[in-house]
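Re-run with default settings, no changes from the original entry. Doing this only to confirm the output is reproducible before filing.
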Amino acid sequence: QWGADEARAHPEDARGILAATSSRASLVELMALSLQGDYRQMGPVLESLLNAGAVTDGPDAALAGAMAKALQAERLCALGYPLQGRELAMDATHTSSPRRMTSSSSPNSSWSALLPATSQPVTGQKRSRCSTATCPHPSALHGVLQRRGVRGDGLRRYASRQSRRSLKLLTTGLEALRDSDPQQMFRLCAAMAFYVAAAQGRQLEAERLRADYEAWGERGMHLVNALARDFFAAGQERVARDGNGIEALHASADRAAGQQARFLELNALTLALELGDLTVVERLRGVAGSVEGKWAGAVATYCDAVADAAPSNTCGLATPCWTSRHFNLQHSRIHQR
């Protein structure tokens, strides 16, 4: 309405005013859809913005363009294209103006898209595009990951390792986020740490992390919240072993499938498999085969071996599971043998 009023008041600039206000309104709509996890509805709106170059003009063009790219990066990650999403997220952060972008104004999707889904290290030119020189205000968690050499390796795989180092990494990141969490990653980190602590039988630590998770509340985009809910459900299953956590993961996978969010579906089903639910193997094999990245490829290979139930295939799991650092699947399967 404001744009229409301004266009009537300044008819000589009406075309530009209407185009600018329309693109900004579309960005607000996209942010609302992102919070809801409505990736189907996001698609057409993003396509019209990015393909038509609707956000390329005006004083805030860099920020608006970065936001559109970051939202598309989030959507690509959720749909099962994490490598493409990572590229677009880094591009969104790189092309926005560092002088005007702060940790509180930068699109949450940009950094968040880098953390949960990627399965290959960021090196060379790609890393330089997202260095502290061009990204002067990275999230606290990302800073911890960089200092510990994680970078683009993918936070999700560190939760799957369930090792002492994994728990230390996650709890260190959690404490950093307690002080500063502009990208709203605290709850995801708490859920992952809770899952690892529960898997290690550290009851006191798990209870403390459960309290952190429950006290924080859901904030930010659906992609991060959905991942957090799944890890928390898996952690609860580790503690209670009553089947409710696995049931929650199945329900989460079904909701993700309804939005064609293949990465979220993959994460939920993989957690169910890590908990010993072999009923998901066939479905997981199909989902993993449609998602980008080494981690998804290793999960698909693992499912092939489980479905074939051949000892030689089980032994062959070592290479892909080691490559993807998905140790928990490898170990649990060998122990079953």
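The two ends are 66 Å apart (CA to CA). Residues 98 and 134 are 6 Å apart (CA to CA).
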